[in-house]
Design goal:
Layout lengths: L2 E3 L4 E3 L3 H10 L50 E3 L2 E3 L9 E9 L20 E3 L7 E7 L5 E8 L9 E4 H7 L7 E7 L2 H8 L26 H6 L7 E8 L2 H12 L6 E8 L2 E11 L2 H14 L5 E4 L2
Parallel strand pairs: 5-9, 6-8
Antiparallel strand pairs: 1-2, 3-4, 5-10, 6-9, 7-8, 7-10, 11-13, 11-14, 12-13
Amino acid sequence: MRVMRLMKVRLVNVAPLLLVPVLALLGACSSTSSSPSGGGSARPSVDGAPNYQMDVSTIPDAVPTPHTGPYKASPYRVLGKSYSPMQDGRNYREQGEASWYGTKFHGQATANGEEYDLYGMTAAHKTLPLPTYVQVTNLDNQRKVIVRVNDRGPFYSTRIIDLSYAAAKKLGYAERGVARVLVEGIDPVAWQQQNDPSYLVSARSRSEAPSVVVSTPPAEVAPALTTGATDRGEYYLQVGAFASDLAAQQLRQRLLSTLDAGVTVTPVQHSSGTLHRVRVGPVVSENEARRLIEQLRLANVADATLVRSN
């Protein structure tokens, strides 16, 4: 059975002529896009899997990271229907059908203003605030993934979530197209506290609405940057410490694509086991520290605290 997609939703047996006015209405008729197959080829008119296959088992899940900017949760209207997004998705829990989207939207802007990567661990949802982290369980095989919701959809169906191709592949339903799933919201602070004993962001109550977390260099440390600190050890911005080296490496890759600074992962022994610290730097001045912290905040990547190397 041939399957077509509209607004990141699989459509079955829909007459092609009926798609034309809707696609035009939604502004989904862009002719070019970056493609997994490379070469700047035209964007496919029908969505599907990439023409090359990556081992998705090597792709780490999204790492729940506290958001440091405003959430996108304003009411909007699509296809004649109005949607009122939730203001807090941490306690969200719903069972339903999931679909996925791939090559047709690869390289296109998501509702969150980011670039869709069919090999990224992301998802589209109609009413969760953007961004939100969720765990998705395939109820047919009990496989689980964690994804970052950064897009809107699916709209033309009763399906509750649209996953990236990679996430669907990891869950084992990319070939089938749809799957019965359980979607559960994640509190990034609680997740970090459970998975990262030295997590540096102050905990928030689960009952609180999401808020902005702003970090500045500690008062007792920042002055040293203005006077030089070579005899006291170098300074770094620490953005996390993980029990999982895979999670630390994933965060490092995100930071390298965001910052114009070095990012390192260093294993250290802790009473509860080995932790993998993710640090940016070295930082040579207070101004540089504040500049890097602002870059992190604007990119919604991570919170940071200034620390010494020793």
